[in-house]
Structure prediction request, 254 residues.
Amino acid sequence: MLYNPTKRSFPALSVTGRECSLNCKHCQRIYLKHMIPVTPESLYTLSMDNNLKGALISGGCNPDGKVPLDSFLPVIKKIKEETDLLINVHTGLVNEREAKMLKKAKIDCVSFDFVIDNRIIKNVYNLNRTPEDYIKTIKILSKYLNVAPHVCIDLNFGKPGKEIEALEILSRFNIKKLVLLVLKPTKGTEMENVKIDLENVFNVFEKASEFEKVSLGCMRPRNEEIEKKAFKMGFDIAKPSFIKGDLKELCCVF
Prediction:
């Protein structure tokens, strides 16, 4: 399956505007600039657009590694009750209370960036948390919600970052779909000159092929070798550049 979510069909929305407390080294708030900032009120208004198929609700994180969603959840619930839109939410780390609130809001899927490498958590995410916090979160999310964990390959400054071990842990849980990302060295960030380790990328692809449903997500370098390898392995592809075919105007978690 090929996916092409657009601003008109499946926009990416930020509940924090351009703000993020973490300023992660691979992003440094740059990707927030490409998202549509929303308040609870504007989110509801936007959702009444008949052309929409759904939305990704995301944003920057607070110092604890959480996307501040609480004030948006009543509106999301209202949207789900009044429309047939598909809602995918980036949550960051959550506790059981927050997971129950997300379930009550009737969201369709949670996208969760899953990492178990302390070097990435502390040196890339700038976050004072532990791998155990991420494992606890995936356990909670998979208990209450449809969850599509995201594993970013080469996020350890272009070197392996325990991605294989992360996939082994994820295989223990009931997950909706696995999404693989690849570090995209981005101009203006501390990682703009990082070189991708393709051997590591393809090793992770091989391990990921053990999962029933896998997508190559849109956050990745536009590299023909990476994309065609993923397609050959039967992965879904978000925003394909080198593969042609019918495009589904949804987020690739669906």
About this structure: The chain has a mean pLDDT of 96. The chain has one domain: 2-248.
